[in-house]
Amino acid sequence: MSAMHNPAHPGEVLREYLPAGLAVSDAAKHLGVTRQALSALLNGRAGMSALMALRLEAALGTSAEMWLGMQTQWLTMPRATRRNTKRFAWRPACCLPKPMASNLRPLT
After folding, report:
1. Which residues, 6 or more positions from 7, have their beta carbon under 8 angstroms from its beta carbon?
2. What's the whole-model pTM score?
3. Could you read off the pLDDT of 62-85 as tens digits, one per residue?
4. Hey, where are the domains in the chain?
5. H or E element: which one contains 58?
6. From CA 8, how far away is CA 75, in angstroms rounded?
7. How many CB atoms neighbour CB 95 within 10 A?
8. Quick one: CATH architecture of 1-74?
C-alpha cells in the first residue's frame, strides 16, 4: 500500500461506512462499545485499536488490517499536516506539572 500525503483519520472513513441516519448510540450498541468510545473515534479524538478493528471487520465485512493500516498511515504522517488534530500550546519544562512520585509509598 503506498503512503498518502494527507490520509484521513480512520474515524472519518468509518463515517462513510455507516448507513446515513444511523445513530451513534445504535452503531455502538451493535459493535459492543460505548457511545462515547465510538463518538471519540468518529470525531478523531481517539485512534483505531486492534479490538475495534476486529469488531468492524465482523460488523462491516472489512478487514482489520485495512483499519489498522489507516491508523498507522495517519499516525506516521507529520503532525502539522494531520486533519482533525487539536493543536496544543508548547509549554517549557518549568511549567509542566510535577511528578507525583513523591506522594507514593511502597505497599506493605
Report:
1. 70, 73, 74, 77
2. 0.69
3. 999 999 999 999 998 877 666 655
4. 1-74
5. helix 50-60
6. 10
7. 7
8. Orthogonal Bundle (1.10)
